[in-house]
Amino acid sequence: MALGVTGPVLPRDRPPYDVRKAMPYFGYEQYDFDIPTAETCDVYGRFLIRIEEINQSLRIIAQGCDKLRRRRRAR
Hints:
This protein has helices spanning 19-22, 43-74. With 75 residues, the chain is mainly α.
């Protein structure tokens, strides 16, 4: 992490780390999402993490859309 390595390339013996949770920016603190991890450090494990990152991104987008809908209805 001292070298800026995060996500799928971070060794599995390290704690899960995501800059959006550690130092939130652009309102990420308002959204509920998980930090993807895998049991293995091989290519397949990294692939699984990437797929889960996509799922978590979709989760954040859905929450943002819900916020916009509620704000629109409040007007």
